[in-house]
Write a structure and sequence with these properties.
The structure holds two protein chains of two kinds.
Chain A (H helix, E strand, L loop, with lengths): L3 H24 L1 H6 L11 E8 L5 H16 L2 E8 L3 H11 L5 E5 H9 L7 H6 L8 H7 E2 L2 E2 L2 E13 H6 L9 H14 L13 H10 L5 E4 L2 E4 L4 H15 L13 H9 L5 E5 L2 H8 L1 H4 L2 E4 L11 E10 L6 H12 L1 H11 L2 E2 L2 H8 L7 H10 E2 L5 H8 L2 H10 L5 H18 L2
Chain B lengths: L16 H4 L6 H34 L5 H6 L8 H7 L2 H35 L2 H16 L2 H11 L6 H8 L14 H28 L4 H9 L4 H12 L1 H16 L3 H4 L14 H11 L3 H31 L1
Chain lengths: 439, 323
């Protein structure tokens, strides 16, 4: 009963679009000519796709091109619907419950296992193996999309956070080489502070979990560990505590931050950085493009370096990004895979990575970035390749993120409501409660 | 076949159903007519209000997560959700004090300020009254989201107007004080926001009431030597009691269930658990953590508190009127 209604709607939509589509095809015979012969296999069908809004500043132009390629290859029409990142999780959940999911959707890597677990996404392992793609995927994205041995999201693109800095302020402070260890980072903070007391050397954003993890990992700690399918939070381990103490100590002991930053999220920190009064911030590789668009003058004076570990080296940093997932309820599974394949391999995948400033999800395509000598690409690529890490791969971690457990811990430390140990213990309690509530 | 309609018939006078029927429709039709007329309203209320309410109450007795939502299964756990909420220290030390304290402060300030503005408007001539009431209506017309962002910007610790003014006066250094991180500071800003957004409605409503009070009453009171303070408490307040009751109840309900203004402030969306009120807590449990059953139970609790407040308030009001 639940399935009948969407199927009916889809049927009507297909009929309606078939009526439009035949006219369109008739007026442009060249499309059929350029196809490889199998180009009209799915003629008259329509594939509905959800793409998150805001990743690529010029996404609609990009997808106009993709739609043309897609129609040339399969004969089917493409209906791309843009969904804002904020609120996307709710939208997925309600449409899964109501049976109104699209055929294919861009799914944030931390959501993929969550939706796989409740049976909404299709297992793509066999299709990826058949297409011969399984050996050429970025490892961190595969890990994040794997549930119960199956891969439920095709790696599409990835991003990673490093530190971007203001080269003018660094020069004024006499810092010639970017810091490569924790001690050097403190030295840089002190130098920036000494050269100009109005500068905020390194704001510690309290409402951002991905800024603190590199320091937990960089001290040898971890967020949580798994044993026999059960996760246990480890943010209160001595190593993790050391990382938390260092990171928050930058603000509390070394004056690298400002009281305002204790409630900042990443966007707020970036905004402050763009105003030109901030030495460095933890930021994703995609923000470089955003700075170039929002503040072209600023783009000339930024540099980047990998987040260092305690003793020198590249620290772990959360490897985020998106999968393309196919929903089980979609009646066009084969056509959906055609689209996923088109998007994640070849020219369209490269073009997307270039336009959006992300890294492609195919390992072979990523190599070009690692070899790049662009000072705003190479450090990120190095961080991703040497330090790309994922948060605990379980649907339950979504609940922990939803509860903002890590952010609450950070804010409690930064506002000195609790000590590092107290806050970490509290966070671990909350996390373990959630981990143990799962099946 | 005696019906309520024939009760008044004098004893001894017999009236069979035969001579009664042609003039009046049969009883079942008379009884159904009001319901028929009410039906459209009831259908709308049922669909938009009663059904969701029943569903929330139903959910509150289940442990209902994403899995249940996707599969449509039920998972009843009786009173477990309520037991967990009512047994948690967090409710009694943080959420409830936040909700109640904030609501009381907002209601008192909103109604107080609204009354003062209404009295002020009532003293003006027609032209200036229109100008001023239009001006205050703007505050009311601004959507809660926009209004909240404006207040957040004003109090931005680094670049905000308040920080700049205070620092140019030498009171603070910009960036050294973050009001949002502190529970009292956070709620002070939220109170400013909600009162600013809520007082125009109160002012306009009370002004409408003020304009119906006969001028003779005040003239007589002046003749008797009553001052403005006395005239307000002895004439205006008693005359406008029903209006004060309405604005107070409405403000109480609105201020208890404030969500947007808290959720959109820095820390209000989950990062700072010290500043949750019942509405935000319910939302975070349901939609951020996928515990729809728990979130529903909190929502039911909030509804229950509001019902009790309203009933108590209405009863005291009507009792006083009977006296």
């Amino acid at each position: 009963m639940k399935r009948r209604f969407p199927a009916l709607v889809a049927g009507v939509a297909v009929l309606a679009l078939a009526a439009c589509g035949s006219g369109g095809n008739g007026s442009d015979p060249t499309d059929a000519g350029t196809g490889s012969g199998a180009g009209t296999q799915y003629e008259g069908e329509t594939l509905t796709v959800w793409i998150m809004e805001g990743t690529n500043p010029d996404a609609s132009a990009f997808f106009d091109g993709v739609a043309e390629d897609f129609t040339a290859q399969t004969g089917a029409e493409l209906d791309v619907q843009f969904q804002p990142w904020a609120g996307a999780h709710d939208k997925f959940v309600t449409s899964i419950a109501g049976g109104t999911v699209p055929d294919v959707a861009e799914v944030g890597t931390t959501w993929t296992t969550e939706f796989a677990e409740i049976g909404a996404l299709a297992d793509l392992t066999d299709r990826i193996d058949e297409a011969g793609l399984s050996d050429d995927l970025v490892e961190g994205l595969v890990e994040a999309g794997t549930f119960d041995g199956g891969l439920y999201g095709m790696p599409w693109y990835a991003g990673v956070r490093s530190i971007i800095y203001n080269t003018e302020l660094f020069e004024a402070a006499g810092i010639t080489e970017p810091p490569t260890s924790w001690d050097e980072l403190i030295a840089a903070v002190d130098a920036l502070k000494a050269s100009n007391p109005d500068v905020i050397p390194f704001p510690i954003a309290g409402d951002s979990q991905f800024g603190v993890f590199p320091f937990v990992w960089g001290a040898g700690g971890d967020i949580a560990t798994e044993a026999d399918g059960t996760w246990t939070a480890t943010l209160d381990s001595p190593e993790a505590i050391e990382g938390l103490e260092y990171y928050t100590g930058l603000a509390l002991e070394h004056g690298s931050s400002t009281a305002a930053a204790s409630t900042w999220n990443e966007a707020d920190a970036l905004q402050a950085f763009i105003q030109g009064n901030v030495g460095m911030i933890v930021a994703g590789n995609w923000t470089v493009g955003r700075i170039a668009a929002d503040a072209p003058d600023m783009a000339e004076t930024i540099g980047a370096f990998p987040i260092p570990t305690r003793d020198g080296g590249v620290a772990g940093s959360f490897l985020g990004g998106s999968h393309l997932g196919i929903f089980n309820e979609s009646p066009n599974q084969d056509l959906a895979w055609e689209f996923v394949n088109l998007m994640t391999t070849g020219d369209d995948a490269t073009a997307w990575a270039e336009e959006s400033g992300y890294f492609p999800g195919q390992a072979s395509a990523l190599e070009a970035y690692v070899a790049s000598d662009d000072p705003l690409v190479a450090p990120f690529a190095q961080q991703m390749l040497e330090g790309g890490r994922s948060v605990p791969v379980t649907g339950l971690y979504g609940q922990i993120q939803g509860a903002k457990t890590v952010e609450a811990m950070l804010q409690n430390i930064l506002t000195e409501r609790s000590t590092v140990e107290e806050a970490a213990t509290e966070a671990v309690t909350v996390m373990n409660e959630i981990f143990s509530s799962g099946s | 076949m005696s019906t309520t309609g024939s009760v008044r018939v004098a004893p001894g006078v017999s009236r069979g159903p035969g001579d009664h029927a042609p003039r009046r429709p049969p009883p079942w039709r008379r009884a159904s007519r009001p319901w028929l007329l009410l039906a459209p309203t009831l259908v709308i209320l049922g669909v938009l209000l009663l059904w969701p309410l029943a569903r929330v109450v139903n959910l509150s007795f289940q442990e209902y997560g994403l899995r249940q939502l996707a599969s449509g299964e039920t998972n009843y756990v009786a009173l477990d959700n309520y037991r967990e909420i009512l047994g948690s220290e967090y409710l009694w030390t943080v959420v409830l004090p936040n909700t109640v304290g904030f609501a009381v402060a907002c209601v008192v300030l909103t109604v107080g300020l609204g009354t003062l503005v209404a009295l002020f408007l009532n003293m003006l001539g027609t032209v200036w009254r229109s100008v001023c009431s239009t001006a205050i209506m703007v505050a009311w017309a601004v959507p809660a989201i926009t209004g909240t962002y404006v207040w957040v910007w004003l109090f931005d610790p680094l670049n905000g107007l308040v920080a700049n003014v205070l620092s140019s006066l030498g009171v603070i250094d910009p960036g050294t004080v973050n009001w949002f991180a502190d529970r009292f500071g956070f709620y002070s800003i939220a109170t400013l926001n909600v009162v600013h957004h809520g007082f125009p409605f109160v002012a306009i409503t009370i002004l409408a009431g003020l304009m119906t009070v006969p001028v003779e009453l005040y003239e007589a009171a002046i003749m008797d030597g009553a001052n403005a303070w006395r005239r307000f408490w002895q004439i205006t307040v008693p005359m406008l009691k029903p209006i004060f009751a309405v604005v107070t109840i409405l403000s109480t309900i609105w201020d208890f269930k404030v969500f947007t203004q808290i959720y959109l402030m820095p820390g209000g969306n989950g990062g700072n658990a010290e500043v949750f009120n019942l509405g935000v807590w319910s939302y975070i449990q349901s939609f951020a953590q996928g515990k729809y059953g728990m979130g529903s139970a909190i929502a039911v609790l909030l509804t229950g508190i509001l019902l009790v407040i309203t009933v108590v308030y209405m009863r005291t009001l009507f009792k006083e009127e009977d006296r």
